[in-house]
Design goal:
Blueprint lengths: L13 H21 L4 H9 L6 H27 L3 H8 L3 H10 L16 H12 L3 E6 L6 E10 L2 E13 L3 E13 L2 E12 L4 E11 L5 E9 L6 E7 L3
Antiparallel strand pairs: 1-2, 2-3, 3-4, 4-5, 5-6, 6-7, 7-8
């Protein structure tokens, strides 16, 4: 048999599938965790001036990134297995089948964070995937510490995308209700505006938040992120801006 006739075998076992998914998921997760445009890291560095703890902080970020990448990769790998229940679900069509499959799949949907002013590549990848997929997605995220139901949609004319959206409902503490809404509108190639807002009410104090972002990606790989964040409590809105340039 000639070597040119050999075909690379598709991964079949859970371990092989996990390795493929981890190699796909890990770079984006680690990039977002350590990105200069992750403004939550800025807050820690400016509020804690004891830089002797910087190595411990970075180690914590690495552990958190690894945990997220491991969990999402394991879930993706499990959904790729040829198990009878999963095969049956893949072959079905209709509201209930789509609801069940979307509740298990679409792991990257969980990366959407309407109130986070930071740019994150995983979230950007999800918006791109949603713009090319079904116009409507819906499901529930039960296996989380903060379970929620979600509805995602795409409004476009032919190949032109006008608006992407993701709405969520959380039921918290047996009495609090929280709605989140994330909108992304592509303006031109590499330029988009995103709006995130939330409204919480119930047994605790009513709270409203909103974040408006302008994102620009450049051909040379740089990213510009300008965000305006405001909340209901007294205080001035916060304007944050950052740009990354590859070396």
């Amino acid at each position: 048999m000639l070597y040119g006739d050999l075909r690379e075998e598709e991964p079949a076992s859970f371990g092989e599938l996990f390795n493929v998914e981890f190699e796909h998921n890990a770079p984006g997760v680690f990039e977002d965790q350590f990105s200069p445009l992750n403004f939550s890291n800025w807050n820690v560095l400016w509020t804690d001036r004891d830089f002797n703890h910087l190595s411990d902080y970075n180690a914590g970020l690495a552990r958190h990134a690894f945990s997220d990448a491991f969990r999402s990769s394991a879930k993706d790998a499990a959904l790729e297995l040829d198990l009878p229940g999963l095969e049956w679900l893949r072959e079905r069509q209709g509201f209930l089948a789509d609801f069940l499959w979307n509740s298990l799949d679409d792991v990257e949907e969980q990366s959407v964070s309407p109130l986070n002013p930071s740019y994150r590549s995983v979230e950007s990848s999800w918006w791109n995937e949603q713009s090319e997929g079904d116009p409507l997605r819906y499901g529930v995220r039960l296996f989380r510490t903060d379970p929620y139901a979600y509805l995602g949609w795409t409004i476009k004319d032919g190949e032109h995308v006008w608006l992407l959206g993701d709405a969520r409902y959380y039921y918290r503490n047996f009495g609090d209700h929280c709605f989140e809404l994330a909108l992304s509108a592509p303006i031109a190639r590499g330029l988009s505006i995103e709006l995130g807002t939330s409204y919480q009410f119930g047994t605790h104090q009513t709270e409203k938040k909103v974040v408006l972002k302008l994102l620009k990606t450049f051909k040379f790989g740089g990213i510009l992120d300008v965000a305006l964040a405001a909340r209901q409590q007294p205080g001035q809105p916060v304007l944050i801006a950052g740009i990354t340039v590859p070396w």
